[in-house]
Amino acid sequence: MVDYHAASQSYQYGPSSAGNGAGGGGSMGDYMAQEDDWDRDLLLDPAWEKQQRKAETAANRICKVLAVNQENEHLMEDYEKLASDLLEWIRRTIPWLEDRVPQKTIQEMQQKLEDFRDYRRVHKPPKVQEKCQLEINFNTLQTKLRLSNRPAFMPSEGKMVSDINNGWQHLEQAEKGYEEWLLNEIRRLERLDHLAEKFRQKASIHEAWTDGKEAMLKHRDYETATLSDIKALIRKHEAFESDLAAHQDRVEQIAAIAQELNELDYYDSHNVNTRCQKICDQWDALGSLTHSRREALEKTEKQLEAIDQLHLEYAKRAAPFNNWMESAMEDLQDMFIVHTIEEIEGLISAHDQFKSTLPDADREREAILAIHKEAQRIAESNHIKLSGSNPYTTVTPQIINSKWEKVQQLVPKRDHALLEEQSKQQSNEHLRRQFASQANVVGPWIQTKME
User: Fold this and answer.
1) Which intervals of the chain are annotated as region Disordered (predicted)?
2) Cα(199)–Cα(193) distance, rounded to whole angstroms?
């Protein structure tokens, strides 16, 4: 072993006096200088340095353990606080989500839906983050405790991760049910609003249609009317009866809507029922008045049925005949473009076929005019004043004769145009054949010269 005390004598630290070694009575300064030399000797001792390093390592480990413990304690406290806050929020939120008290108006339900959307967009996302952070903190804490050979962390009762997950699952179920309830309730209220608006609309339309109908049905205008007027009144009444029958479905729809509003507990059902009852009562009165007027009109109808039948027959036959003449005039004036004899011959054949139908058409025209003349004869013989026109059609005999004359004028013009075009096409065909014949002669000669 090295004698560090002997080796230290060869070094002098600080001032020394001449009488230092002889009498042993050196000054205090010399003693202190010697003590410093001993401390330096200890610092140079490897064993002491090793012990010092061990002590420092142990101290560092202790500090690290203390730091880890403090961090773990901090994580435990954070977990407990986060768990408490999150569970408290879940407990407060679930009753709100489980509230199923419906509102009367769709605006109030839409406000609840808007609040729920705010909850989904604003309030819930931070809580989702807190839940995730809570699980991360719990797993991190358990890992640190396991690495430190410490017992696993056991949260307070009711604050386990499983408790939080159960509460969160309950929250999700309540949230899902709440959203479904909100949407169903809004649809129900929308259905109610739609039905109520539909009821009001149909009721208004029906009331507008019935306005003045009772006065019309009570009017005794048929007592002083002419026969033609009575006939028109009968037709008008028949049309009204058809319209009345068509409105039967509307009245039934109104009653059905009112019934459905009652079943769905509509808040204004009283006014709906009152209005519906008024409509039904008025409908019964209209039915009774319609039947009475029908009987009165039928009693006054005694003459001129033949005239009415003739007018109707005239209208039925005049309308298609008038359409045929208009179509014929269009065809006779139609422009045509042909390139071959076959095409023009087809047009001529169709035109000839059309001309063959003219005698039958003329007979139909005379029959139609005869119907009109017969109606005039019956009216004159019975001193009946007819209205100026047929009530069933606007096609008069003058119109029929005028169009028939126009057809008669257009037929020869069409004949001339077709024959002229036929001559043109025959000339073209002759030229084409002449050209083909010459080409057949010249063609081989040209081919021979080219070879």
Assistant:
1) 1-31
2) 10
Unique residue bearing structure tokens 């649809």: 187
**Nearest to residue 312, comparing CAs of 392, 236, 414?**
392
Q: Residue 282: which H helix or E strand, with range?
A: helix 269-300
Alpha helices in 264-388 (DSSP H): 269-300, 305-332, 341-356, 358-381
- By the 8 A CB rule, do 48 and 42 touch? yes
Q: Does domain 58-190 have CATH number 1.10.10.10?
A: no
Which contacts qualify for 118-126: CB closer than 8 Å, 24 or more apart?
A: 119/93
Give dist(CA 417, CA 422) in Å, integer. 9
* Burial of 422: CB neighbours in 10 Å, binned 0-12, 13-18, 19+: middle
Reference 297, options 233, 228, 216; nearest CA is 233
CATH topology of domain 212-300: Methane Monooxygenase Hydroxylase; Chain G, domain 1 (1.20.58)
Q: Name all contacts of 447-450 with Cβ < 8 Å and 24+ positions apart.
A: none
Q: Are 36 and 14 in contact (CB under 8 A)?
A: yes
Question: Any idea how long the chain is?
Answer: 451
Q: What is the pTM of this model?
A: 0.40
| Token pair recorded at residue 237 | 């009444």
CATH domain 305-436 topology: Methane Monooxygenase Hydroxylase; Chain G, domain 1 (1.20.58)
Which helix or strand (DSSP H or E) is residue 222 part of? none
Intrachain domains 212-300 and 305-436 with the same fold: yes
129-132: long-range pairs with CB below 8 Å, 24+: 130/82, 130/85, 130/86, 131/86, 131/164, 131/168
* Domain ranges for the chain: 58-190, 212-300, 305-436
| Cβ neighbours of 193 (radius 10 Å) | 13
